Amino acid sequence: MAMEKRIEIFILTVDELVSRTRSLHDEGYRLVQICCSKVDESGKAVLELDYTFDKHYNLYNIRISIEEGAEIPSISEIFGSAFVYENEIHDLYGVSIQGISIDYRGNFYKTAMPHPFTQD
What are the tens digits of pLDDT across the range 86-100? Predict the structure, then answer.
C-alpha cells in the first residue's frame, strides 16, 4: 500500500517562526533544509526564507519574507543542525540571525565580496 505524501507551505511572520518551529520539533518533525531566495516585489528587494521539515515523508514548509537587512531569530537551539544553514544565509545574503548556537560571525564562507547573493 502506497503512503500518501503531502507537501504543505505555511506563510508565517518572523514573530511566529520560533514558536511554530518548536511545535514541529515537539511533534517529531526533523529539519530538512533552510533556503533563502531574493525576490523582487514591485521594485523592492525581499528575501524569502523557506524552512522545510519532514515527518514520515510528509513535508511541512514555513516561509517568511523579510526586507534586506532585517533581523530574525535563530532556530538552532531547537534544531542543532540549523546553525549551518543560518551561517550560510548570513554570509551569502547578509541576514542578521540572532542567537545562532555556533556563530561563525561572517566567516563561514570566504567570498570575494560581502553578501554576494544580494548583489544586482
Answer: 999 999 999 999 999
